[in-house]
Amino acid sequence: MQNRQEKAALKSQYDQEILTSQLEVQNTTLQYIGQELHDNIGQLLSVAKINLNVLEETTQNTENEEYIKQTNELIELSIHELRALSKSLDGDFVHDFGLQESIAHELQRIKKTRKFETELVIHGEKYTLGYEREIVLFRIVQEILNNALKHSNAQAIVISISYTPNNFVLTVNDDGKGFDIETALKNELSQSGSGLRNIKRRAVLINFDCKIYSQINQGTKYVLSSTNLLKSK
């Protein structure tokens, strides 16, 4: 029995070390991509906007003026969207502003596409879960949102966060087409995709429980919860 306990403890420690390494690699990669987008693509868009501003000030016929104005507005929107995307890729955003603000920023970015209505509902008094838990939860939420954007055909996405002294619960709901969970999990075993299993695995490694509820044409709901947290306000 002692041997089994030691083996279980070693496996748990190994899993935690693997998770930490994965997070470090992932965050470094995403930060690099975000910085490259912001610095390089953002700079090119800014230069294009300056050129359009110069054209606007020169004599143009009415049709050309309208095209230049529309293009200028599109580039301005692209710059704002690029900045928002680079923030969502940067793990330091979660470190600096916390889980709740990071999720709010992500939902706002999705809402600006005008394809989805989004809402963030907060219950209770906010407290921090610690950066390691919060960055993992944020990446889980990003993966859930990415699945919804690509596959759900939803019109609305609602995230709810509930803070109580003894429990933390985060739920993600969409009103999309839903899916059969058992079939999806079986497919993941035989195909390259492993989204649902990856979400559950990440949750377990930070001592969170993850439940997924979905039915065809009934939408999808993810519930991430933990009752064993070391909280600091």
Which SSEs are present, and which pair or pack?
Elements (H helix, E strand, L loop, with lengths): L1 H56 L4 H28 L1 H21 L5 E7 L7 H22 L3 E9 L2 E8 L6 H10 L4 H11 L3 E6 L5 E7 L7
Parallel strand pairs: 1-2
Antiparallel strand pairs: 2-3, 3-5, 4-5
Helix pairs in contact: 1-2, 2-3, 3-4, 4-6
Describe this structure in words.
The chain has 233 residues and is of the alpha+beta class. Helix content is 64%, strand content 16%. The protein is built from 6 helices and 5 strands. Strands 1-2-3-5-4 form a 5-stranded mixed beta sheet, covered by helices on one side. Strand 1, helix 4 and strand 2 form a beta-alpha-beta unit. Helix 1 (2-57) packs antiparallel against helix 2, helix 2 (62-89) packs across helix 3 (91-111) and helix 3 packs parallel to helix 4 (131-152). The protein starts with a helix and ends in a 7-residue tail after the last strand.
Condensed summary:
By secondary structure, this protein is α+β, with helices and mostly antiparallel strands. The chain has 6 helices and 5 strands, in the order αααβαββααββ.
Instruction: Give the radius of gyration.
Output: 22 Å
Which oligomeric form is depicted?
Answer: single chain
Report the sheet-strand fraction. Answer: 15-25%
Described by strand count, sense and barrel closure, the largest sheet is: 5 strands, mixed
Give me the secondary-structure category: alpha+beta
Which strand order spans the largest sheet, edge to edge or round the barrel?
1-2-3-5-4
Instruction: Write the H/E string, N to C.
Output: HHHEHEEHHEE
Shape: elongated
State the end-to-end distance: 39 Å
Low-confidence runs: none
Question: Into which percent range does the helicity of residues fall?
Answer: 55-70%
Mean pLDDT: 79
Number of strands: 5
Number of helices: 6
